[in-house]
């Protein structure tokens, strides 16, 4: 084979290999939510003077994210029976049919296929929140979000994470007990950390 042709073949093979690696690097990645480093807090006003806050202790979720395009999807759930305000009496009321009705609706779910970006930066995630069997649109505003490698105890791993906030009217889900003394507007503060599916914790 003439040397010039040989050089073209080698160059073509190298470019193909580089392109394949680039495509693999840019491909969408499946992430699993790390429940240890993920939290969901909620709050509502009480007699318009203070804010009652609580959290969900059991969280699960899957995220697909393509850093090259900024596109992604989310399927995120909380175990409603795991809610915790630090007050057992209040927790019992919130778990009852008056509020979350955890026996009949044990899961709250957020699903999204729309990541909103501006200037290459994730600014929001738009999707649907389902509570008490009712689904309503919900937009999570991104306070910060990043993907990259972290090193802990000498172990390197890929991590995507961010802080988000949102609010919704609980009455739109049929949760109307004690209105207006307990506020209709519920705020959410969500911190999410996720690693590629199958990766070591």
From TrEMBL:
InterPro entries: Lipid/polyisoprenoid-bd_YceI (IPR007372), TTHA0802/YceI-like_sf (IPR036761). This is Polyisoprenoid-binding protein YceI. Keywords: Signal. The keyword Cell cycle does not apply. Residues 1-26 form the signal peptide. It comes from the Bacteria. Residues 30-195 form the Lipid/polyisoprenoid-binding YceI-like domain. The keyword DNA-binding does not apply.
């Amino acid at each position: 084979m003439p040397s010039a042709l040989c050089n073209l073949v080698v160059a073509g093979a190298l470019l193909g290999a580089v392109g394949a690696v680039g495509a693999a690097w840019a491909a969408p990645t499946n992430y699993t939510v790390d429940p240890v480093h993920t939290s969901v807090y909620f709050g509502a006003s009480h007699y318009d003077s203070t804010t009652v806050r609580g959290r969900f202790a059991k969280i699960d979720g899957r995220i697909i994210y393509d850093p090259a395009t900024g596109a992604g999807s989310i399927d995120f759930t909380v175990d409603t029976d795991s809610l915790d305000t630090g007050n057992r009496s209040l927790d019992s009321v919130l778990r009852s049919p008056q509020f979350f009705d955890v026996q009949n609706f044990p899961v709250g779910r957020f699903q999204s296929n729309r990541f909103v970006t501006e200037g290459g930066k994730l600014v929001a995630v738009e999707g649907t929140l389902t509570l008490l069997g009712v689904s309503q649109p919900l937009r999570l505003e991104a306070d910060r979000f990043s993907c990259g490698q972290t090193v802990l105890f000498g172990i390197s791993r890929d991590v995507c994470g961010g802080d988000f906030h949102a609010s919704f009217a609980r009455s739109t889900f049929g949760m109307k007990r004690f209105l207006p003394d307990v506020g209709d507007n519920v705020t959410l503060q969500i911190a999410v950390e996720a690693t590629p599916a199958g990766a070591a914790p």
